[in-house]
Amino acid sequence: MTHDKENRKSLALVRTQTMERAQGNAAPIEFRTLSIHVTETHRSGKNGGMPAYGKERDAKPSRFWKSKKNEDELVTETDFFSTADFHKLSESEINLRFNSDPTRGLTQPEAGRRLKVNGLNTLDSPKPNYVKMIFGYTFGGFCSILWVGVITFLICWQPPLSPTPNVTNLALAILVLFVIILQAGFSAFQDFSTAKVMSSILDMIPADCHVIRDGQLVKIPASGLVVGDRVHLSLGNKVPADLRLLQASSDTRFDRAVLTGESEAIEASTTATDDNFLESKNIAFMGTHVVQGSCVGVVILKGNDTLMGRINKLTTGRKPKKTIIQREITRFIQIIISLTVALILIITIAWLAWLHRVYPDFMNLATLLVTLMGCVIAFIPEGVPICISLTLLMIARRMSENNILPKSLSTVETLGCVNVICSDKTGTLTENKMHISNVAFLDYESTPSEVAANIAKGLQNVNQLPQPGDDHLSLSLRQLQLATLLCNNAKFDPETMKLPLAERRVLGDATDSALLRFAHQVSDTSALAPSFERTFEIPFNSRNKWMMTAHQGSRANPQVIKTLFGSNIMDANNTAANEKDDMLVFVKGAPDILLPYCSSFWSATTKDGPQPLTPEWAAELTRIQQTWSRGGKRVLMLCKGRYSPYLAQHNLSMAGSSTSNAIQEELTRQGLQELCILGLVGIMDPPRPEIKDTIRACRGAGARFFMVTGDFGLTATAIAKQIGLFSTEREPHTYENIMDPTLNASSNGYEKTHFDDASSLQQAEVGRPRFREGTSLVLTGSDLARMSPGEWDIVCAYEEIVFARTSPEQKLRIVTEFQHRDGVVAVTGDGVNDAPALKAADVGVAIVSGSDVAIEAADLILLGGFDAIPEAIRLGRLAFQNLQKVIGYLLPAGSWSEVWPVLINVFLGAPLSLSSFLMVIVCCFTDAFPCTALVMEQEEFDLLSLKPRNSKKEHLITLKIYAQSYFFIGSTMTFFCNMFFFLYLKEFTGVGFSDLVFTFGNLPEEKLAARGISLEKFNGYYVNTAQCVCFVTLVILQWGNILSVRNRRMSILQADPFRKQRRNLWLFLGILASFLVAVLVTETPGIQEIMLTNSVPIKYWLLPLPCALFIIIADDMRKLIVRVFPKSFLARIAW
What we know:
The protein has 42 helices and 28 strands. By secondary structure, it is of the alpha+beta class. The longest helix is centred in the C-terminal third of the chain and has 40 residues, at 868-907. 46% of the residues are buried. Keywords: ATP-binding, Cell membrane, Membrane, Nucleotide-binding, Translocase, Transmembrane, Transmembrane helix.
């Protein structure tokens, strides 16, 4: 018992943590704190104020209340809820207080007036702190250190650091400021796009409710609710406001986890169950969900006045948790900034300890500051944040085009890491188009067509109720037909009733729809349904796994039950005209669930009817179930029983309430007592035709694919074999193999190996789950309930698993157990009960046709079929791969090649080969346009053939990328750029590298004078022109780099940008744009005058072209070696 309690507690804890992680406004701690204060206030006899805990008033139950403002707000809310008495009022008092008619509700004019006076039923969203947001955009990331550059350039613009106003420094300050604004603009645009996607998802979530207006049940937007409205709720609905419950079915349950964090659903009541308003079960709170039953309530609080609205005000300002990709980008920024700061310190120390003392005229303080800022601008690839935003946005757009809607851009990248997929069966792996294929009594099997023929043959009149003289087999089949018709909540859409049966639309779930179609298919039902009145019902739920209905004869046919079922279903002494004292009960559910409650079965071949359920007949039932299940059919059993509700009615009348949980308790107790089996039906739900390829694609991508279903184990196993989830025909392991590993022998096709032998596991790797290929397993919910952590270790090592007969809590546990073993889990679901697992999963996937609860809980919405999942994984991996290519393209020129001119200038004393202005132009303009084209790249090879990314080891930026970008491509580009810089100076001034190195400002005036060049002209014209030559060279070399970096393994001859498979003509548009920017910078007179640029001779526009080709050829040679010698040193360090 203690162990069970601990398990339930741990599940609640997990649920609470996942709720808080997934929802910024979910506040279990805040709700519980508020409730405690209300209870303490009641006990103290006060109407408000902060209760003292012991002697220390400051001993608060939550760190949340840590400011005077929050404490005052808590006192205010405590005052309100401690005096609230809505839960204590009777129904008549509620109607009187809110002036609401119990049958007609509010009139439309009155509702309109209240709406106009009190406003919409909406929560005030936390208003964005635009000042804080703008501050984050303009000072976050690389911008923080760029601001230092702006300030430094402004300081160096005017005296005293500059003898005369230096317009170039002012222009540089303005340019860097423009770069900051550009980066901030892209960050804001990214947030705006994410908010827009979230808005579109919220628009898809149903936001309507049913209310009584002018005596009619109408559907209105939830925002249009007013206080006093009478709201009707049913299974799956979200509560639209705080309601006082007036009517509730006996099985109504609410999921309050969004408020309390507790996993157990709360039963509903129509009377007060606690003095504390927050704990009373006759109050339904806004934002909670109906997970069972139906009810009617009056709106007592709406919008910001509700509990959710008040907690929303108390919990504003929580910091969202950083996503994986955000952490990766932050890590990259920190590395770059750390290297930049280290470089600045090295140069500063060198200047203080050496340069300033030995060469005082070479670099004064102003020149040092400008040089340091040049180093900052050189080493920081300012274009990276912009290009990352564009990459994620483009991939998200591609996903939308493939009917995949991610809630946030971070989900895009997380998909590439998924290595475990847990999928529903019904509606996901199957078409959810169920039909009955087999019918059986324990002594007779048939098909729907044969049933129809036998009924027509054996009944005197198929359009009337059965008569005592009818054939026994036909009468038995008619009973089974009646059970499928009455123990059913599905209905035909009235608008389609004139259509043929197969074309009619059914309102209800797939199982009930199949039973309803069967009932109408085998015989006319026009005389059956009106002859019965449903008195009570316990709907199907995931815990009971059965549905029960209680019926009595209608006034027109009071003895219909005796006519159909004989007097043995009723008390022999019962002579009531309407049979109200005893009622007929129908129960449908899984055979293995209902069999323990059965004592007899209806014989279709013996006219005596009910027969004792002996062990032999129970074995026959099991045989039928297993035979059908092995064929992939879902098996339902239909039973009949009786219910005498007198005791429950008596107790209810004493309590003065019309409904009570006593009805459900007594109905369950009596209805499940000594049931008689009417028959079995086999329901076929054909697998989706594309699901086999989907599973194969997911497995090829390195993701294990599991089925989690509530169906019978054999049915789930048969479907798993049909769809390829079980890849072999051999029988899968069961829980017995887990308990006794010695059973894992070749008797069922496996090699003899102990599953606790670590040597048979895949190669262990931190952050990647271990499993054995080709192993399959079937577990049931009862198996999961008794498993130990050690047994979970064994289970998680299987490659193919079917979890059958599972509850929502067990589905949640499956997710968390795999996560604890390095699993990155994606879960699919569409129902209310799937919400805990969807929230706990790394990627929750909901179908757009699913419940609003599932859509809210999920991270990803599928607008089409489940076959979009592999494409989503592919695009997630493509996003990460393209981000790496973007960084690999930007680092060589935007960081490495720009920092070396500064180092050569400082430590070798040669002129600066690239000015700060030209560095900024390269980073933010000439590189940005081709880089944007990289975002459009298609996959180089089948990304689904790779293993999932190990997020603990495989980072966005790695040492391999640094090595490729800096030491190979970057160093090559640095050499060519500086070579052409000094080559130009040698050609036009006669002064080359050997003449300028180690000069530290002491230029060879004799050589310059021999060519008629003064020092002023050399520094003011020729050096500036040579810097432009270096700049043009760098721009052109990047053309070769982008054509090379777009392929990590393949040669440009194998994957050129022209052929259809890898076509990307945007590259050439980006190259053209960078060329035009280079021409603009070097040829525009205004820019030449202010930023000290000059025209570049045509010769130096052409010379870098073969060098760019050299980069392509050199990198292609590297790729060739990697392909031919995959185990070589070069292959091991390849990115």
